[in-house]
Design a protein that fits this description.
This protein is an alpha+beta fold. The protein contains 15 helices and 14 strands. The protein has four domains: 48 residues, no CATH class; 85 residues, no CATH class; 121 residues, Transposase Inhibitor Protein From Tn5, Chain A, domain 1, CATH 3.90.350; 150 residues, no CATH class. β10 and β11 form a beta hairpin. The longest helix has 30 residues. Keywords: Coiled coil.
Length: 460
């Protein structure tokens, strides 16, 4: 604790700044600084007020400097400007607008409406001077120069430079995700805006889907934007074709590449297509190798420790998927097990509470009449998709004299045990027989944790 202490010396008061702390149970003085008499303190205050001073302000510049350095290394602005047909006028070019937007979004969530305020507070405002405002309409005008063909040309040039700098991909990670939007599509003019399975459970909103492939350094190699109502497994075939085409353009042999993808892309056709062009590591759904989940953890071997400090264990075997036998590794992460178990119990408790509330409302004579269909819809809204094999229900027609159907529900214990066996585990299969178990296990990638959790970790 810091406080002022007055001491009387020869009858005159003098002031000290003192800090006291408890040491071994006793209060002791940690330090003591002499300030002087009250008159001396007042004199020092007046001197400070009369002295000229500069107001200093600090700026974060590390991330900005790194991004500007990458821009210079790749020649990003020049590449964008080379492929956009814009007249030379005073102000920012399309490439500069795009880079500014990227830098702003790398510092946090930022809309085009808010970029001018961010720019004024950023050290980049000392380096870039221009006569016009950074309003939303200006940004939209610049983005109109970048269509899908232009984006492909920009991507082609950037990938070519990356390969020249030695960043030839040997492993490629592919994943898809979607963003819901409040934009409507009443006239059906937009090819992209459609309703579909949304990862944020916003099935009431139109969405846009994106597929992204990155190399082992998390550097994007190719992307594809596609309609919100197209399933990921259908789009996967198209992104594989684009990867192969780009590799061919860059004189890279696709047979030397390993493609890593998630279980949402699984299908017999997709697996056969990938195998015909390159090697792969894929993730399997639990019901594709259910018997492997029964292998006791005592047969798992330690593989590695992940970035969160969790130990990863693995069990290696062979298993048949889509009519072909592959090397299969089941990984186990106790940290993930605990998280999934906790999340499961929390969601299960919420669902049961909501079903019990619905049950009470249906048993009550109060309220308006309900039909079977309305109850069915409400139950479907309550029971999350992942719980529909675990929490079963039955809707009983309204008894005589009642105006509402009755609800009966229960937990299927066998299916619950089957579900719990998957917690903390990931099933991987590959044609890379020569790969060590650790390499296969560690190639399981958190793509939608890395970019699609809105999406800060990749250099988009």
């Amino acid at each position: 604790m810091v406080f002022l202490r007055k001491k009387l010396i020869k009858g005159k008061p003098y002031w000290y700044i003192v800090e006291a702390a408890r040491v071994n149970g006793k209060v002791k003085t940690v330090f003591q600084i002499y300030l002087g008499s009250a008159e001396k303190i007042l004199e020092m205050k007046k001197q400070c007020e009369s002295m000229p001073y500069d107001k200093l302000k600090s700026f974060e510049y590390g991330k900005l400097a790194a991004l500007l350095h990458v821009n210079e290394e790749l020649g990003f602005i020049d590449i964008v400007n080379r492929h956009t047909d814009k007249k030379l006028i005073d102000g920012l070019s399309v490439g500069e607008y795009l880079l500014l937007d990227i830098i702003g979004k790398c510092h946090g969530i930022l809309s085009e409406n808010g970029i001018e305020d961010w720019f004024k507070k950023s050290p980049i405002s000392f380096m870039w001077k221009f006569p016009h405002k950074l309003n939303c309409q200006n940004f939209l005008n610049q983005m109109s120069y970048i269509d899908s063909d232009t984006m492909k040309k920009i991507e082609d040039d950037l990938c070519r430079i990356l390969v020249e700098k030695g960043l030839t991909p040997s492993i490629m990670f592919v994943d898809e995700s979607n963003w819901f939007t409040h934009a409507t599509n009443y006239d059906e003019k937009s090819e992209l805006l459609h309703k579909g399975y949304n990862k944020k459970h916003r099935k009431d909103k139109n969405q846009i889907c994106v597929s992204l492939a990155v190399n082992e350094n998390n550097i994007p190699f190719i992307h594809e934007t596609y309609p919100g109502n197209v399933p990921d497994s259908e789009e996967f075939s198209g992104i594989v074709d684009k990867i192969i085409n780009r590799l061919t353009e860059l004189n890279i042999c696709s047979e030397d590449l390993v493609l890593v993808f998630d279980k949402g892309n699984n299908s017999k056709d997709n697996i056969e297509k990938v195998i015909s062009k390159m090697s792969f590591v894929g993730a399997a759904k639990a019901n594709q190798a259910e018997e492997l989940l029964d292998v006791p953890l005592s047969r798992y071997n330690y593989l590695y420790k992940n970035t969160k400090g969790n130990e990863i264990f693995g069990y290696r075997t062979k298993h048949q998927f889509y009519g072909t036998e592959f090397i299969t590794v089941i990984t186990y992460n106790e940290g993930t097990y605990k998280l999934q178990k906790s999340t499961y119990e929390t969601n299960k408790s919420k669902i049961i509470d909501q079903l019990q509330d619905l049950q009470r409302r249906l048993e009550s004579s109060k309220g308006k009449e309900r039909n079977r269909s309305s109850v069915e819809n409400e139950v479907a809204e309550i029971i999350l998709k992942k719980f529909r094999t675990v929490i079963k229900y039955e809707i009983i027609e309204a008894p005589e004299g009642k105006k509402k159907p009755q609800l009966k529900f229960w937990v299927d214990e066998e299916n619950e045990k089957r579900c719990e066996k998957t917690f903390g585990k990931n099933i991987l299969f590959t044609d890379k027989q020569e790969w060590h178990t650790k390499k296969i296990g560690s190639s399981s990638f958190p793509v939608d944790k890395m970019i699609f959790n809105s999406k800060p970790n990749w250099f988009l």
